[in-house]
Amino acid sequence: MEQGAKRKKASGFKSSKKTELVKLEEGKGNIIQPLTFTMMRMDTTAMQNKAVVAVVNKLQEMVRMIMYRGGNWQTSLAQLQTEDVKRDHGVSMKIYLNEFGVEPRNYADLRDSIIALAGLTVKLPYKSPDGKKFMKYTNFCDVYFEEGSRSHYVIITLDEDVADKLINLDFGYQMINKVVILNNVKNKYAQKLYTYLMMWTSKEAFVVTTKELRENLCIVDKYPSFRHVVQRVLEPARKELQELADKGCCDYYFDYEKIYPGTKRTGEPEKILFKIHKSKVFITQADLEADKRSRIQIANLLKSHFGFDEKEAAQLTKKVNHLNGTEYLSKLVDIEQYTSKPDVKDKKAYCAKALNEFIKESEVLVEQLD
């Protein structure tokens, strides 16, 4: 059996029994995921996505230590070793099956999914000591199950280059709630899109080219007709995340718009605009008041420094909230410095144009992260 290729496909739960959803609790379940790992492209099943999140969760202590105390990540990797299996130039970790968010009746499927991870190819950029750039193709991990028993744990080892993507914070990080993926979301595309949109919660929206979306979801060669992408990828993911959000079992969900070039309105769109919404269950009165304070602060600056009236200031601050308020404030400081120059004739007009461009640019193209 080569790399699990002939194993039965473990794409999710097969039991007719319904798995109980887990409601999220404020401040619990959040884990740090480096953006370098989020942008890795791996064609995984729903069960394998759970396994990958369990691996990220296992590395949290090390990630937090690097974040708060600093230190060399390669030195830190050397400390992550189990007694039974050690990995030179990498990490090894023991994970119990009950840490994967899977019920015991589904452990057989979980084992198959984890074994298949060992044959999963990942693509990583690599630079040689003399500066040459390569694309490295390697396996995500090695997997060890104890022989002669139905072991309730697995040992997973990662090569140093792969492990780097899971703990290296040089390119930033995001927070995701592990409970959403481990316990609640069943659709593999919903799992991936949830992780994806969590990068942009402070922006409340992002734009991605359709080409980039297909690549990140590993559907480049699937669903040639975009209506099938809608029917089998986007709509099932959108519906599941929104239903879970309404029940308090997911913190964010999305809707989307197709963007076509020119007058075209059918076929493959050029881009997709994703709009991110926080679950109403988790929007507290404190959040609403903080959003209002941020909008008032920015609106007051627009009126006092640039001469906008109440209605105009309200229009320009519609998208301000307590998460992005400091970005707006910083932009206004830059605009104030520039418009203080004597050659700027119409301070208000310049501010309106610059701020509208800033608002438009906040819907960042995801491809710029690569």
What does it look like?
The protein has 370 residues and is an alpha+beta fold. The protein has 14 helices and ten strands. The protein has helices at residues 35-38, 46-58, 60-69, 73-78, 107-117, 160-167, 178-184, 188-197, 210-216, 226-246, 285-306, 310-316, 325-339, 347-361, and strands at residues 30-34, 90-96, 121-127, 133-139, 142-144, 153-159, 173-177, 205-209, 252-259, 271-278. A three-stranded antiparallel beta sheet has the order 2-6-5. The chain has a three-stranded antiparallel beta sheet with strand order 8-10-9. A hairpin with an 8-residue loop joins strand 5 and strand 6. Helix 11 (285-306) packs across helix 12 and helix 13 (325-339) packs antiparallel against helix 14. The protein is globular, with a radius of gyration of 23 Å.
Which helices and strands appear, and what pairs or packs with what?
Elements: E1 30-34, H1 35-38, H2 46-58, H3 60-69, H4 73-78, E2 90-96, H5 107-117, E3 121-127, E4 133-139, E5 142-144, E6 153-159, H6 160-167, E7 173-177, H7 178-184, H8 188-197, E8 205-209, H9 210-216, H10 226-246, E9 252-259, E10 271-278, H11 285-306, H12 310-316, H13 325-339, H14 347-361
Antiparallel strand pairs: 1-7, 2-6, 3-4, 5-6, 8-10, 9-10
Helix pairs in contact: 2-7, 8-10, 11-12, 11-13, 13-14
